[in-house]
Structure formats: structure tokens, C-alpha cells
Amino acid sequence: MSVPVTISIDAMGGDSAPEIVVEGVRMAHERLPHVRYLLFGDEARLAPLLAPYPGMAGVCTVRHTDEAISNDAKPGQVLRTGRRSSMWLAIDAVKKGEAAGIVSAGNTGALMAVSKFVLRTLPGIDRPAIAALFPTIRGETLMLDLGANIDCNANNLVEFAVMGEVYARAVLGLETPAIGLLNVGSEDMKGSDVVKTAAATLRESHLPINFYGFVEGNDICAGTVDVVVTDGFSGNISLKTAEGTVKLYSTFLKEAFKSSLMSKIGFLFARRALNKVKVRTDPRRYNGAMFLGLNGIAVKSHGGTDAFGFANAIGVAVELVAHGYNERIRKEFDRLKPANVPSPQLAAGTR
Amino acid sequence: MSVPVTISIDAMGGDSAPEIVVEGVRMAHERLPHVRYLLFGDEARLAPLLAPYPGMAGVCTVRHTDEAISNDAKPGQVLRTGRRSSMWLAIDAVKKGEAAGIVSAGNTGALMAVSKFVLRTLPGIDRPAIAALFPTIRGETLMLDLGANIDCNANNLVEFAVMGEVYARAVLGLETPAIGLLNVGSEDMKGSDVVKTAAATLRESHLPINFYGFVEGNDICAGTVDVVVTDGFSGNISLKTAEGTVKLYSTFLKEAFKSSLMSKIGFLFARRALNKVKVRTDPRRYNGAMFLGLNGIAVKSHGGTDAFGFANAIGVAVELVAHGYNERIRKEFDRLKPANVPSPQLAAGTR
């Protein structure tokens, strides 16, 4: 039996909050009965959503607040004026130890800014990164950063590599996960100075990491490595390119199946098989971007997801808690203290 | 009837050269009977490949050379020692006016370096870019740069926008093509300083361009704009991510259709429809990356493509020639001379 875990929820974040949020919590509750929830938001709207489900009363506590962060609010503005918002209070519950992690489908920039401000980064980590799993031919690959850090230096990339490596061991259960650095070619001479310096550090620093070397965009879905490290600009573009390509392919498929009587009959026979493909590439299954490197678990759900997707994001947070990700990464960075590591980049710590 | 056009071919470039190159020329000849070819390479190997096709004698001229550029040759080394190579001589034929464009499936870095050295950039253009068409839900979108320029400043991106815009008008025949700048969000405040400055220039410079604003990775395949502008690092990663995602999706499909008797029957009925999807997403159909901004037409074929793909790359070069792309871009940059344009970036010209 699992130890009870409490997750705090920004019930007002997301395009269809609080409705899909509450429905997502209900779906997560079915899968993860040991999890408790602190729901931050407008009690007058939350109570009627919870009322039809008596089982929810025992696992959900509503903490009322009038304020919510809008999708177009700027992070700086939220930091100045958002302290009473559902998002801020939900994050604060992690800081206070009332919850083991927080999930929000709200404004990404604000969520990252407030999480960083309230929770702080883990010792030795300069910048947190956004990480998520990608489906691949061989299984799943973790990729980071997906958009938290637009400009990265080599040290940031090295830190992301360590954070991703620990995730792959702690949560995915891999013994010696292979780490790749995303680049425009696999040869040493290719790429920007930043990726070349990061690669040199990963190769020469005696970090206990199985560094594969450079990988290219097509290696992500090929599953060439277990963790793909990149800056937030390229990572975000790559993630969204993949999403757009899946949409293109499935649109082409739909059109093709409608194009003749034969193909319509084919569709009827192949429907179950095609559904499997839909499930395997369903972005909702991969919903839940992790903010790694913070002194607390924070997970961002897609703003436009449905309850199924939101429930998956909760699952991602619970997994990080259950595998003690933050304790593992803390230990890892302790091991990597200046005395033990010859890398000037990593040794420089939180510049 | 079309005016005769001569294309020079690096017959020794690519993974399976010269076999697939000659076969590609033969396929292109069937589709484009008005095109003549100058084939640079080892005559002893080319002659027997051409011999079985008597029709080819009238359209192909072989220019012998012993030397070829290997795939792992470094561009700097090729610039110093590659003057007698098939690649260099093929490019030189364009410089000399013997050919209207050159196609090579060889080493990309070397091809760009030698093309730039021999052909030079067009007046007013700082750096050439690699451009290619993407299939989209709405048709096709041009994207550039795909890997020629790892580090770009705002001025480079503005030049790419102009080059792409002219392509969309001249070759795709669009009246006022929409140009988007690839970024991690569509809001003005998002992204790196480079993209923000480029966007400001495109918005405020009175360039005769229909600037849509920022687009995200998923907008590429959605066909949100006609031209997507980005730096070579993100562009290359995005292109290869899309290729990898198509491969993933088609692998999932294959597995699904093999998973049961029902789905196998479904496959038989839907085979023709599925084949259509395969054709629409076939990377060979999109083979032929254009080096835009050079004082001459140069097209890079994928190194691992087959004859069908190589023939498409020839088609891309012939299209650029037929639509007078370089004359159009030259006129466009003449119009944009310092006196006519208030943009300090573009006015600075070839810094």
C-alpha cells in the first residue's frame, strides 16, 4: 500500500478551470486512491463541482481565494501582486510542507517565476528546467529544457544533464541512462560554442554520467538516448514541431480514409488498430511538464488539456514524489561539490 | 515550350554516388526534357552508367575529374585543397555561366563553404541560408534557415525573411505571402533578444512584407504562414524533429496494422489510401534544400536519398532558375537600399 501523499492544486489555472481541474482530480483519485488534495480557488465555484462525488470529500480540502492568475499576466506583475492568487497559495503549500507537490494548468511563465521565487532552486542548481517525456520507437525519452531558459550557457546544459540523468535513474528506473546533447550534427566540430563547451565538460569532467554525445532532432523520437538535453528555445520549438507533425499526419490519415469506399471499409476493419496509434501518440498521455531543479515538486499541465490530461499531470507529480526525486538530486549535487569534480563549470555552482 | 536550361551536377557527392546521381538525372530528364546536364566526376565510372540510356547522350556532358569530397571532410580543408573536386568544379560551372544552377548530394558544410567562396553572396546579403519546403495541412510552407547559420543576429533573420518572401512570390506564385518568425510563444514579450529585435525591425521598417509576427513549432505543419524564418540551429533541430516524428508515427501505424487479423484485413482495404499518406509525407518529395542568397543557384540533395529524391532536387534547382529567383531577389535588395529603408539593421547591409 502506498503512503498517503498530498498534492496542492491551482484549481483556477487553465482554459477550462475549475471544471476540468476538479474532474481531473476525480479521475486521478480513481487511479491513485492514496493521494490527498489541497484545492486552491473560488469555493463558491468549487463546492458545486465537488458535491456530486461524495468520495471526494474525504480526499479534497478546499482553500478559498478570490484571486486567480490570468493567462496573459506577465511573470513580473504576478510576482508583485499575485500573493493571494490560487497559483501562489498552491505553491506556498509545498513550501510550508502541507503538500508534497503542486500541479497547475495556469500561465507557464508565472508558474515558473512564482515557483522559483517561493520554492527556490536546489543547492548547486543555477536554473530550473522544464522537462517532459516524449514517446519514441523504443519507449520514452525525457527531454529538457522545454522553454524555461531561452538563453543557456554551457553550465546550464550540464546541470540539465545531471537533473535528467537522476530522473531517468530515480523515476524511470534505468541503471545507466544515456544522455545526449541536442545539436545540428553528431560530429564534434558541429554546433554553437555553448553546446561544444557543454559536451566537452560532460566528456571530461568525470561526472558519473553515461554521456552519449551529440544527438539530432530525429534522434528524439528514435529513442537514441534516454535523456535529451537542450536549451529552452530549441527544446520548445522541437516539442511543438513534434506536436504539429503528429497533427499533420493524423489529418492526412483522416483525409485518406475518407477518400474512397474501399478505404472507408478499411477504416472499419482497422479502427481498433488505428485507435491504438491514436492512444500512443495522444498528447494528453504525455501531459505534465516537470519543473526540475526546484526545492519542491511542481508540475505544469497544458492549459488546454481535458480532465484526462490533467489527471496525468497529477500522476507525474505523484511519481516524482514517490521516487524521492528531489532527495536524489540533492544527494547527486552534494556528490558533485567542487572538491569532487574537476569541472570548472559545475564547480562554479550558482553563479 | 521551355527554354533550355543547363544544370551542373556533382556526380560524386552522396552516399551512393555516382549510381543514384546518374539514375536521378535520368528520372529528371523524363520529367524535364528541356534540361541539359554537366556531370562532374570520374568518367570511367560515369560512362558505363550512362551507356544503357542512349537518350542521355544528347543531354549529358561528362567533365572528368579524379577528385571527390568525402562526407567527413571539413569545410576549411576543402576550401584549401578541393579545387579539383567534382563538387568545386560543378559550382565553378555556375560561376562561369556554363550552368544555371548546381545540384550536389555531397557534404553539406563543404558545399555551403565552396558555394559561398566561389559564387559569393548577392549584393546586400550578409549570409546565405538553407531553405526547404515543408508539407502542411494547408499546402506547403518554406522554412529557412535549416542549418547554414548556427548563430544568427537580428539582421540575418530579417534578410532571411526577405529571401523567403521573394521565394514565396516568385516560385510559389503567392501575391502577399505571410512571413512568421519562429519563437517559443506568440506574445511580443516572448523569446530571445535576437528574435524580438528582428520582429521589431520587420514590423517597423516599412519593408514591403506581410509580417505575421511570431509563430511556434506547431505552426509550421499547420501552415499558419507561408514562410517560417528561424536561425540555423533551431531550424535544423525542428526539421529533423519533424522527420523523426513522421518516422515514429509510421512505425506505430505499421505495428498497429500487424497487431490483429482484423487490422491486417483493414490494411488490405485501406492500402491505397495509406499509400497516399505515405506519398504526402515522403521526405524524398521534399528533397532539395536551396542555398538562398548566393550569386547563383545551388541545391543540396540529401546524402542518403535515392534517384527519385535526387531527381526532385534537380527539379527544385530548375524551378529557381525558371522563376528567375536570383534576379528577383537582386531587385528586391536594390529596392531596399539604405536610402529607401529606415531600418538601421537592413541598411547596414553586408557588415
Automatic annotation (TrEMBL), chains A, B:
<dbReference type="GO" id="GO:0008168">
    <property type="term" value="F:methyltransferase activity"/>
</dbReference>
<keyword id="KW-0489">Methyltransferase</keyword>
<dbReference type="GO" id="GO:0043811">
    <property type="term" value="F:phosphate:acyl-[acyl carrier protein] acyltransferase activity"/>
</dbReference>
<dbReference type="GO" id="GO:0032259">
    <property type="term" value="P:methylation"/>
</dbReference>
<comment type="pathway">
    <text>Lipid metabolism; phospholipid metabolism.</text>
</comment>
<comment type="function">
    <text>Catalyzes the reversible formation of acyl-phosphate (acyl-PO(4)) from acyl-[acyl-carrier-protein] (acyl-ACP). This enzyme utilizes acyl-ACP as fatty acyl donor, but not acyl-CoA.</text>
</comment>
<dbReference type="GO" id="GO:0008654">
    <property type="term" value="P:phospholipid biosynthetic process"/>
</dbReference>
<dbReference type="GO" id="GO:0005737">
    <property type="term" value="C:cytoplasm"/>
</dbReference>
<keyword id="KW-0444">Lipid biosynthesis</keyword>
<keyword id="KW-0963">Cytoplasm</keyword>
<dbReference type="Pfam" id="PF02504">
    <property type="entry name" value="FA_synthesis"/>
</dbReference>
<dbReference type="InterPro" id="IPR003664">
    <property type="entry name" value="FA_synthesis"/>
</dbReference>
<comment type="similarity">
    <text>Belongs to the PlsX family.</text>
</comment>
<dbReference type="GO" id="GO:0006633">
    <property type="term" value="P:fatty acid biosynthetic process"/>
</dbReference>
<keyword id="KW-0443">Lipid metabolism</keyword>
<comment type="subunit">
    <text>Homodimer. Probably interacts with PlsY.</text>
</comment>
<keyword id="KW-0594">Phospholipid biosynthesis</keyword>
<keyword id="KW-0808">Transferase</keyword>
<dbReference type="InterPro" id="IPR012281">
    <property type="entry name" value="Phospholipid_synth_PlsX-like"/>
</dbReference>
<protein>
    <recommendedName>
        <fullName>Phosphate acyltransferase</fullName>
        <ecNumber>2.3.1.274</ecNumber>
    </recommendedName>
</protein>
<keyword id="KW-1208">Phospholipid metabolism</keyword>
